Amino acid sequence: MILASIPSPDQGVWYLGPLPLRAYAFAIILGVVVAVWLGEKRWVARGGKPGQVGDIAIWAVPFGLVGGRLYHVITDYALYFGEGRDPIAALYVWQGGLGIWGAIGLGALGAWIGARRAGVKFLPLADALAPGIALAQGIGRWGNWFNQELFGGPTDLPWGLEIDPEHRPDGYADVVTFHPTFLYEFLWNFGVAGLVIWADRRFRLGYGRAFALYVMGYTAGRAWIENLRVDDVQMNDVLGLRLNVWTSLVLFVLAAAYFVWSSRRHPGREESVLREEPAVH
Fold first, then answer.
1. Rounded to 5 degrees, what are φ and ψ at 73?
2. Res 279 pLDDT > 90
3. By the 8 A CB rule, do 35 and 135 touch?
């Protein structure tokens, strides 16, 4: 079957009485559930206790949501601050706008706190969670489809994404189909998850190397997908590249350097996931 184009949903919000049910929120929640489920299976296989990943997620998920929103607001502050803007809208997470770098950064801090409280090592935990995080990111991108946001430039490819006129950026009023970057990133992230799972089984990655491989895989894809996008970003152009492209390039290099350093310093995998000191209560 050859697609003529990919239609965008007519709506992304449904109401159960006065309660709004938002597709963006459901995509994020489904991604978190999948990440916790897969992370739990991998964590138990590494010697962790059942239920620990769920307990740690209670710390990691809220931290990640706050970090993701902060990154978005900081890098696109003109949407919320200045003349004619409503600063309170910066709190409206359900309308979209979560920066993955802030989500990973503060989410990792929350996971570290949770790991210390559980008395387990952080690096093997990160390795266990890595492919699930990639899956969660891919699933979450379907929220962008419902919101008709973060799409790429014009295209006449048979899988071009139809965007309604009210969602098209300035200068693209007469363009009907755009690159479906949400779909590209969804497929790429699932491929990254598969790569990490395969490499972890084949080479018994430890000491954070599975997580570093996930970072390398994700940022390699994000760099080229980001360059396809035409949405307006306040911090859009840094020496000719979007800020998120620079972030991807820097994180790729750092992750690759850590992977090589860790492979030489700590070959193999940790013998135990438990910390030496007692858990914090």
1. -65, -40
2. no
3. yes
> pTM of the entire structure?
0.91
Beta bridge partners of 130: none
- The amino acid at residue 277 is E
**By C-alpha distance, which of 132, 131, 111 is closest to 122?**
111
178: enclosing H helix or E strand: strand 177-178
* Paired strand residues for 14: 21
Token pair, residue 28, equals 């994020």
216 and 255 Cβ atoms separated by less than 8 Å: yes
Instruction: Write out pLDDT tens, residues 175-229.
Output: 999 999 999 999 999 999 999 999 999 999 999 999 999 999 999 999 999 889 9
**Domain boundaries along the sequence of the chain:** 28-147+171-265
The confidence score (pLDDT) of residue 234 equals: 47
Query: Which residues, other chains included, contact 55 with Cβ-Cβ below 8 Å and sequence gap of 6+?
Result: 114, 118
Query: Which residue matches tokens 């306040």?
Result: 234
Cα 213 from Cα 258, distance rounded (Å): 10
- DSSP string over 88-110: GGGG-GGGS---HHHHHHHHHHH
Q: What is the pLDDT of residue 1?
A: 44
Q: Which residues are paired to 20 by β-bridges? A: 15
Q: Return the sign of the alpha-carbon dihedral for residues 118, 120, 121, 123.
A: negative
What DSSP element (H or E) covers 167?
A: none
Instruction: Pick the more confident residue, 37 or 102.
Output: 37
Amino acid at site 227: N
